[in-house]
């Protein structure tokens, strides 16, 4: 492994964010290495959403820096960071419901190409666009659903579609915000399989409540409590960490 | 450009600002609390003026006309709320705009049918008739001063209501976070009625107060409505304080701009060109101001919640 | 599925065929009024189609769209006042003026959303209105009479009733086709996608602002072209072209016809103008009827005429 490959794809350096007296992100530092899934867990109200906002660019931290693929992206907006290769899924499903499944992915492919100031060629018969989109649908096993209106998919399928949309942007990192939220056991299983298959190609920062999914997927886990990272390490270490047990589960032990 | 003219126009500007505030306050409250954009707010101003004229024709007293006008304006507003508006609270803004546009078309025409298209007037009360000298040789009509004072009084009253009462607290909470108010178990329908009725009264009051100095005619509310939009956009939608400040700024800029733009243009241009450019520039002034404010603060001077 | 396909292709095709035949009807029945009225309708239809492009596809509720009719008309009228009648000068200039106005006001308005956007476009429309009322050199409030029509390379095409109708028809057809093609392009997908979920668009790396602004400028430019035609049709330009009531009526046309299909806007323009003409034939106070009718349409008539045709 060369030095550049070993360098983390994402590095949060001492992020702080306050709303008035409320200190929601406290000196958070965290890295995601290439080829790993780094899971971020924490109880409700730990400040995960605010932290995701800062990583994706919708919330500006008060201090600290975000280095993505070797570049300080702290001052860039959401769309700019996305173009640099930060793909994401949302906690509340964010797809384009009136478009077909294929169109959803094709739009992400089109976004990756740069600008979309192409006015006259019909997008739905743009073979290049569609073929590339189909590859991503294949990757997540949704080829059969390509023609369906995205709004008509089941909840679990919508979550999978979100992953396909994120993939189509050719991301250097995927930021997955509770991809298993609200999915049934079978759908969770399917998502775990999909994500597991992608792990070698695309590093991920996974925010998730479903602990069994987290322990199946994560190479490393960080625990966020009250805006602070209280522990970070391999799953086995986190499982045994008394501070995590105390803060996260109030001493109970089904981690 | 004499100082006397400047003083008179400043007072006129304040007076326009006060009228704008009375209209904008209702508009911004209703929008802030109910997320309802009411284009018909301008015709409620017009109704206030017409109903007061009718009241005067009936009683011959300005003061009775004021009371009758206010009461009937409130009544008309509540009827509109009952028949039309309450069906629109859950709709998107486009539907609200279109339906209240329909109300405007109807009421402007209805007023024309009932009172005719010719302008009417409401005489100022004897008590407030005449003019008083302000400084050396400057005379200013008492009624206009009274309008400014009464408008400031209403603004103060509104301030107390919004900051000191329970309904006011709900109004502020509603403007910041409407879902929270609903979650608190407040009777939203009743709160809406109160806010709406209050907004209607304010617009009606503005119309009545304007009736002795502006002509009472169909469509008189339309232009003020759009100015009131400029006011609340500049001030920040939902903010009474923003509406007050922005109304005075817009009133002053517009009035002073119209009186002095040509003179100022003459400093830079030959007189003939200045006579053309001056008025055109004057009529653009407040919109340029609005654009400038939005450029730096897209949610207005006092943003209550993000747009 | 079949009926949907039929209404999506067959309906606009049938619509344009019928419109193309209007001069024939007028000739056979010697009905000049119908031809002149239809010309006026089609000019409004061009504006309505351009508005539907940003309203129906881009969710931009522009309440100042009539300003472009006025600006386009004034460009032609003012040039005519200075004895410039050549359409190849005045029409591109009218469009350029509107494009510039749309670019500047759009760049500011599109920084905001929702109700702010509605109010700001309304205010800018009003700005254009008041600016023209203060143009005393060009008639101010009273407007400006043109002593003739634009010239197209000495052909006199603007002067004949039928030839002028076909010019207007051609502009409408071209506008419709160009915008329709665009709605299906990559550009159109971005517009529609941003309407459905803006956060998702940003997350895939697309900032909708530039695309919305482009659509806004395009719509303004086409409306300006319609304004240039309007000046020729009426041989008169006045601030009334850009009153905010007119902007409201344009939105009504789009909604009445059925938003987001472009040909719905044409249907809406026809329906609105015919309704106005019919009602005002009964009473000068036709707005007493139209106002409540509009409220009822908003409250109970989802989908407009197209919705009714589809039976949904």
TrEMBL record, chain A:
Domain ABC transporter: 10-251
GO CC list: plasma membrane
Keyword Nucleotide-binding tagged: yes
Keywords of this entry: ATP-binding, Nucleotide-binding, Transport
Keyword Transit peptide part of the UniProt annotation: no
GO MF entries: ATP binding; ATP hydrolysis activity
Family statement: Belongs to the ABC transporter superfamily.
PANTHER family listed in its UniProt record: ABC TRANSPORTER ATP-BINDING PROTEIN (PTHR45772:SF2), CONSERVED COMPONENT OF ABC TRANSPORTER FOR NATURAL AMINO ACIDS-RELATED (PTHR45772)
Protein name listed in UniProt: Amino acid/amide ABC transporter ATP-binding protein 1, HAAT family (TC 3.A.1.4.-)
TrEMBL record, chain B:
A Pfam family this chain is assigned to: BPD_transp_2
Classification of source organism: Bacteria, Pseudomonadati, Pseudomonadota, Alphaproteobacteria, Hyphomicrobiales
Superkingdom per UniProt: Bacteria
A single GO molecular function term of this UniProt record: transmembrane transporter activity
GO cellular component: plasma membrane
Compartment(s): Cell membrane
Protein name: Amino acid/amide ABC transporter membrane protein 1 (HAAT family)
Keywords: Amino-acid transport, Cell membrane, Membrane, Transmembrane, Transmembrane helix, Transport
Keyword Transcription: no
UniProtKB/TrEMBL annotation, chain C:
Main location: membrane
Bilayer topology: Multi-pass membrane protein
Subcellular location: Cell membrane
GO MF terms, alphabetically ordered: branched-chain amino acid transmembrane transporter activity
InterPro entries recorded: ABC_transp_permease, LivM-like
Cell membrane is among the record's keywords: yes
Pfam families: BPD_transp_2
Gene Ontology CC terms, in alphabetical order: plasma membrane
Protein name per the record: Amino acid/amide ABC transporter membrane protein 2 (HAAT family)
Upper taxonomic lineage: Bacteria, Pseudomonadati, Pseudomonadota, Alphaproteobacteria, Hyphomicrobiales
């Amino acid at each position: 492994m060369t030095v550049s490959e070993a360098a983390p794809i994402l590095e949060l350096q001492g992020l702080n964010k306050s709303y008035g007296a409320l200190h929601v992100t406290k000196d958070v530092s965290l890295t995601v290495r290439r080829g790993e899934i780094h899971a971020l867990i924490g109880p409700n109200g730990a400040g995960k959403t605010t932290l995701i906002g800062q990583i994706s660019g919708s919330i500006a931290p008060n201090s600290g820096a975000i280095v993505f693929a070797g570049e300080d992206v702290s001052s860039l907006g959401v769309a700019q960071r996305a173009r640099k290769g930060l793909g994401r899924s949302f906690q509340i499903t964010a797809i384009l419901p009136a478009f077909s499944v294929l169109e959803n992915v094709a739009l992400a492919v089109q976004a990756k190409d740069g600008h979309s100031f192409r006015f006259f060629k019909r997008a739905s018969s743009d073979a290049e666009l569609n073929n590339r989109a189909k590859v991503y649908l294949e990757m997540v096993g949704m080829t059969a659903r390509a023609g369906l209106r995205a709004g008509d998919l089941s909840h679990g399928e919508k979550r999978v579609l979100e992953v396909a949309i994120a993939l189509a942007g050719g991301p250097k990192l995927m930021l997955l915000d509770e991809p298993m939220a609200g999915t049934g056991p079978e759908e969770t299983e399917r998502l775990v399989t999909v994500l597991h298959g992608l792990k070698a190609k695309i590093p991920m920062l996974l925010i998730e409540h479903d602990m069994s999914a987290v322990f199946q997927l994560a190479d490393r886990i960080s625990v966020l409590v009250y805006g602070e990272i209280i522990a970070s390490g391999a799953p086995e270490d986190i499982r045994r960490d008394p501070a995590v047990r105390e803060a996260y589960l109030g001493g109970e032990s089904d981690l | 450009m004499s100082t006397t003219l400047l003083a008179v126009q400043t007072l006129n500007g304040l007076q326009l600002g006060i009228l704008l505030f009375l209209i904008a306050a209702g508009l911004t409250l209703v929008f802030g609390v109910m997320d309802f954009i009411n284009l018909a707010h301008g015709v409620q101003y017009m109704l206030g003026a017409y109903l007061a004229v009718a009241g005067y024709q009936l009683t011959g007293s300005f003061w009775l006309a004021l009371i009758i006008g206010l009461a009937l304006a409130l009544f008309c507003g509540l009827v509109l709320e009952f028949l039309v508006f309450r069906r629109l609270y859950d709709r998107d803004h486009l539907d609200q705009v279109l339906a209240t546009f329909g109300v405007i078309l109807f009421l402007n025409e209805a007023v024309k049918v009932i009172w005719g298209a010719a302008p009417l007037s409401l005489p100022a009360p004897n008590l407030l008739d005449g003019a008083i000298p302000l400084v050396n040789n400057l005379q200013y009509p008492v009624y206009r001063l009274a309008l400014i004072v009464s408008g400031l009084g209403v603004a103060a009253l509104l301030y107390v209501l919004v900051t000191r009462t329970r309904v006011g607290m709900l109004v502020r909470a509603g403007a910041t976070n409407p879902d929270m108010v609903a979650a608190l178990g407040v009777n939203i329908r009743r709160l809406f009625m109160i806010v709406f009725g209050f907004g209607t009264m304010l617009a009606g009051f503005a119309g009545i107060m304007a009736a002795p100095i502006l002509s009472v005619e169909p469509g008189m509310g339309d232009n003020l409505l759009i100015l009131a939009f400029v006011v609340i956009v500049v001030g920040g939608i939902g903010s009474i304080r923003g509406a007050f400040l922005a109304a005075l700024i817009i009133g002053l800029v517009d009035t002073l701009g119209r009186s002095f733009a040509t003179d100022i243009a003459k400093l830079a241009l030959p007189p003939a060109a200045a006579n053309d450019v001056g008025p055109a520039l004057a009529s653009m002034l407040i919109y340029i101001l609005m654009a400038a404010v939005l450029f730096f603060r897209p949610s207005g001077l006092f943003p209550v919640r993000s747009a | 599925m079949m009926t949907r396909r039929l209404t999506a292709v067959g309906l606009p095709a049938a619509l344009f065929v019928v419109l193309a035949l209007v001069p024939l009807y007028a000739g056979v029945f010697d009905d000049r009024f119908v031809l002149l009225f239809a010309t006026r309708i089609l000019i409004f239809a061009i504006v309505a189609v351009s508005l539907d492009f940003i309203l129906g596809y881009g969710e931009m509720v522009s309440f100042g769209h009539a300003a472009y009719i006025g600006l386009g008309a004034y460009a032609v009228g003012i040039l005519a006042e200075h004895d410039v009648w050549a359409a190849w000068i005045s029409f591109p200039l009218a469009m350029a003026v509107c494009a510039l106005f749309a670019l500047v006001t759009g760049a500011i308005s599109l920084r905001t959303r929702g109700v702010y956007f509605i109010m700001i476009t309304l205010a800018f429309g009003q700005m254009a209105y008041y600016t023209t009322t203060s143009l005393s050199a060009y008639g101010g409030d009273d407007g400006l009479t043109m002593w003739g029509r634009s010239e197209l390379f000495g052909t006199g095409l603007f002067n004949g009733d039928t030839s002028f109708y076909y010019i207007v028809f051609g502009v409408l057809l071209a506008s419709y086709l160009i915008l329709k093609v665009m709605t299906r392009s990559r550009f159109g997908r971005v517009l529609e996608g941003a309407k459905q979920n803006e956060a998702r668009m940003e997350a895939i790396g697309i900032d909708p602002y530039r695309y919305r602004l482009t659509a806004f400028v395009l719509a303004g430019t086409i409306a300006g072209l319609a304004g240039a035609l309007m000046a020729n049709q009426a041989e008169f330009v006045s601030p009334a072209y850009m009153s905010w009531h007119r902007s409201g009526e344009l939105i009504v046309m789009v909604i009445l016809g059925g938003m987001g299909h472009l040909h719905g806007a044409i249907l809406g323009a026809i329906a609105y103008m015919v309704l106005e003409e019919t009602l005002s034939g009964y009473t000068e106070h036709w707005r007493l009827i139209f106002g409540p009718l509009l409220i009822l349409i908003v409250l109970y008539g989802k989908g407009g005429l197209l919705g009714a045709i589809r039976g949904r």
